[in-house]
Amino acid sequence: xxxxxxxxxxxxxxxxxxxxxxxxxxxxxxxxxxxxxxxxxxxxxxxxxxxxxxxxxxxxxxxxxxxxxxxxxxxxxxxxxxxxxxxxxxxxxxxxxxxxxxxxxxxxxxxxxxxxxxxxxxxxxxxxxxxxxxxxxxxxxxxxxxxxxxxxxxxxxxxxxxxxxxxxxxxxxxxxxxxxxxxxxxxxxxxxxxxxxxxxxxxxxxxxxxxxxxxxxxxxxxxxxxxxxxxxxxxxxxxxxxxxxxxxxxxxxxxxxxxxxxxxxxxxxxxxxxxxxxxxxxxxxxxxxxxxxxxxxxxxxxxxxxxx
Length: 308
Ligand SMILES: Cc1cc2nc3c(=O)[nH]c(=O)nc-3n(C[C@H](O)[C@H](O)[C@H](O)COP(=O)(O)O)c2cc1C
What we know:
An 8-stranded parallel beta sheet has the order 1-8-7-6-5-4-3-2. The protein is an alpha/beta fold. The protein has helices at about 20-25, 40-45, 70-85, 100, 115-130, 150-160, 200-210, 225-230, 240-255, 255-270, 280-285, 290-300; strands at about 5-10, 35-40, 65-70, 90-95, 135-140, 160-165, 190-195, 215. It folds into 2 domains: about 5-230, Aldolase class I (TIM Barrel, Alpha-Beta Barrel), CATH 3.20.20.70; about 240-300, Non-ribosomal Peptide Synthetase Peptidyl Carrier Protein, Chain A, CATH 1.10.1200. Strand 7 (about 190-195), helix 7 and strand 8 form a beta-alpha-beta unit. Bound molecules: flavin mononucleotide (FMN).
């Protein structure tokens, strides 16, 4: 599940669903990938929107399912459900800054300022499953509280196997640049670097800082091959249109026609970004509800005929 110097695919809510992970897997067969974050409440109570996020993972290889919540017992129950569903490891979200998660629910980034609760949750989850448990966190709540190292020491003590660290505080949200600190020898578990990593130079830079791997988030948007390229498992594909069509077919299979078509608009836009006439393409695609029309627009834009 964890080797040194791996390239991880970050959890991205609304993006790293099963169809997206299938596309990333084509290029990076062994990369550790995260699911979108899943609420422990929805999972345990099987709320009606949860099956969208709830898959069986055993055919997916190295998949970490990420859960969020502030109730240690429910987090432990959620972890057991995901272990039974075939997850390779469980990740606890300790960095999500959105108010619904961090301030109103006391979960996500809130756990960076409530180390006692964070510890209780980590102990409960580690004790509930046989598979490894990781956490994903940020530098701290704000500039005055950059206490990421304290949280990592607690995590190590609880039996957490590794940590992904995003080089921003909760207060920064996604603004400014990610500033990843040096990892010192007294940190006893592997730390994966995250934030603004896009190139092999970026990966080298964080390796030199003592990180045990790199995690890629937004650089995957419209470039799902980037993990494979950075890990040396693949090269940039020559026929991107065929990949876009394949991704759309996976979405149709998973979500059904109209929902998939509307959800795919953003992916189509990301794939086209930086290409000539992409602005016009984006405007057209944003109005499409019909499956065949979406297929046709993609085929026309990339000059390709069929699904790979
Ligand atoms: C649209 C979006 C959704 C995200 N969803 C999650 C999530 O579900 N869980 C999580 O821990 N982080 C989430 N993040 C944070 C990313 O995993 C990552 O930490 C952040 O984007 C910085 O990495 P990057 O610069 O490589 O994108 C999300 C970020 C974005 C932009």
